[in-house]
Design goal:
It comes from Streptomyces fuscichromogenes. By secondary structure, the chain is of the alpha/beta class. The chain is built from 5 helices and 9 strands, in the order ααβββββαβαβββα. The N and C termini lie far apart (about 40 Å).
Length: about 220
């Protein structure tokens, strides 16, 4: 049994490492493409700016229309393992404003076009929900904690996040438990970093089956 578990963990680590290498290669290609296309883009903006303004006059912007609403419907259902699963719709429209999510921290819904960097990033200040939700869409696990969490637990979780690609961590005030772990459509509240459910949550949901965009970048977003 232990051998099988070690084998599964090794396969999972190898898969994540392969994704990280592919992501780095993709980032390098993207930088080259951006540099090569920048002159063309600027020229196109100058020439087509007036035409674009007129063509969009009187039309609604789908992203702007979605501002304020998460587009979510449904509720949490708690499983025997303590994980809360959102049963219902989780929208995925890109919006530029503040979103009113029905759950805190949010586990999905309309979100900012730019994701929050989630390559083992530990943030010491609160981050924007809208960017963090985009990171969840990419398959990240988001660890949040309140001032009721013990410093030792915060330090333990920070160390784990730093060693785990497709994860991030930040303080959060408006949540029920001292520590919450969130993935797209799933959430777990615990009181201690030593809770065995913490490791299981990471194992299951980092680039898990729930991921809408598996393998999407966790770097090159916003800090």
């Amino acid at each position: 049994m232990a051998t099988a578990k070690k084998s599964n963990n090794a396969a999972r680590k190898a898969r994540i490492e392969e994704m990280r290498r592919a992501e780095q290669a993709r980032d390098r290609r993207n930088r080259i493409l951006v540099i090569g296309a920048s002159v063309v883009v600027v020229a196109g903006l100058v020439v087509g700016g007036v035409v674009l303004v007129h063509s969009q006059s009187g039309k609604s912007d789908s992203a702007s229309d979605a501002k304020g609403s998460s587009g979510d419907s449904g509720k949490f259902v708690t499983g025997s393992d303590g994980v809360r699963t959102w049963t219902g719709k989780l929208s995925r429209t890109h919006v530029t404003g503040t979103v009113d999510y029905p759950m805190h921290p949010p586990v999905g819904g309309n979100h900012n076009p730019v994701w929050l960097n989630c390559n083992g990033n530990v943030y010491t200040k609160a981050v924007k929900d809208e960017n963090a939700v985009h990171a969840l869409e990419h398959g990240a696990v988001w660890v949040t904690y309140t001032d009721k969490a013990k410093k030792s637990d915060v330090d333990t979780l920070a160390a784990k996040v730093k060693q785990t690609p497709y994860s991030l961590m930040s303080p959060y005030t408006n949540q029920t438990s001292p520590i919450e772990l969130s993935a797209w459509g799933h959430q777990l509240g615990v009181t201690s970093a030593d809770d065995p459910k913490v490791g299981k949550f990471f194992e299951t949901y980092v680039q898990g089956k729930q991921t809408p965009e598996p393998g999407a970048s966790c770097t090159g977003g916003t800090m």
